[in-house]
Amino acid sequence: MEQTRAGSCIHNGLLQEQVLKWTHNEGSSKHAFPRLLKEDIPRIDHRVKETVKRQLSKMPIQGQIGTSPCSGGNNGRFMHPKSVVTRTRCKGISAHKCSSSRAFPRLLKEVIPPAELHVQEIVKRQSQANNLAKQDSCRRPECSPVFLEEAYRRCRNICKDYAGTYYLGSLLMTEERQKAIWAIYAWGTRIDEMVDGPNAVYMSTSLLDSWEERLQDIFDGHPYDMVDAALTDTVSKFCLDIKPFKDMIEGMRMDTRKCRYENFQELYLYCYYVAGTTGLMTVPILGIKPESSVSVQSIYNAAVYFGIANQLTNILRDVQEDALRGRIYLPQDELAQFGLSDKDVFARKVTDNWREIMKEQIARARFYYNLAEQGISHLDKASHWPLWSSLLLYQQILDSIEDNDYDNLTKRAYVGRTKKFLLLSQAYRKA
Ligand SMILES: CC(C)=CCC/C(C)=C/CC/C(C)=C/CC/C(C)=C/COP(=O)(O)OP(=O)(O)O
């Protein structure tokens, strides 16, 4: 099987009758869930489900195999996406399901963002759409190879400049996959820079609306500039669905509206929007192992958890930097439970209470990394090393905060070069 045939990988995975009994209820004690969450964690399963369904419905049905990688070979042994989705419904890893059976952390009290119905409606609409028409949308636009090469080179540079760790992971991937990863990253970063960068004051909802229109153009095969062109090529090559991209823009909207998060429910949704979506975009690129015995939904869930864990980590690493921009991502109710407030964050004083809340936050991020880990082995073999590497590198940031005695108010957690290389070889052994 060709590694680029992400779609066929997914379908092959689904051909397996067995269904996942993913083990997050049996996680090692090292990763037992921290004290913070009491009852439940927010549900975004419906969002992930929608993406999986949409993604699958873009794949060809039997006898309609085209020439693009996304509609790849497999000797015509595709199943109809609809039947696939039905059979795999609700199987697999889901963090909120494990809440009752684990010692869930203390902090989380409320339940579920109310977006479920909205998303369910989209799922319904999508499942009614015509598969042939969707196959058309996977056709690759004509584009000169030289132009595309330059477009991807620009994306690579953006990724290298803005996301060192992510870039390092991408270097371990096959060429086609790394290019796709760079294109997605470059697209997201350009928008993120408008929200977070030096020109953030000029950011407005209407500007984000116009980027959303431009996103549609990218998916329709009408890129506006080179970075867009790379993404157009990527979405057609890997048959990516637009929904997670739109959700990411929604996350940016949220960032322009909000600079405080009342509770973990709110923060979780934000993390899904700005980082979990990257996981959803990336699974078709990484490819699912043909012999995977778990549901596709579970694998997408794990990918979302990876993004969430990464975002929680970045929030802990960047507390001070964010505070300087007037932003505090730590849930307000959790700060209060530890006798802390915004004032303490701005005062940059590392107290025992601060250390205690940091321990809980770190434990929570590790919990999500642990969930993400369980998805890696179900991806195409060539994606294991890059993913283990990113996972270990990101987790090392948490270790580094601990090594700094939880001082992320005056110090920035950092992973040195030597450590990075050691982690790459550790990741290689795990892969
Ligand atoms: C586990 C399974 C099944 C799939 C994984 C699917 C993937 C690759 C998900 C990626 C999720 C993720 C880590 C999203 C965040 C991406 C990102 C660009 C983060 C920022 O990059 P850093 O390298 O942390 O940047 P810094 O330079 O700020 O450190």
TrEMBL record:
Single Gene Ontology MF annotation: 15-cis-phytoene synthase activity
Pathway: Carotenoid biosynthesis; phytoene biosynthesis; all-trans-phytoene from geranylgeranyl diphosphate: step 1/1
EC number(s) recorded for this UniProt protein: 2.5.1.32
SUPFAM superfamilies assigned to the protein according to its UniProt record, in alphabetical order: Terpenoid synthases
UniProt xrefs under Gene3D superfamilies: Farnesyl Diphosphate Synthase
GO BP of this protein: carotenoid biosynthetic process
Signal peptide: none
Catalyzed reactions per annotation: 2 (2E,6E,10E)-geranylgeranyl diphosphate = 15-cis-phytoene + 2 diphosphate
Protein name: 15-cis-phytoene synthase
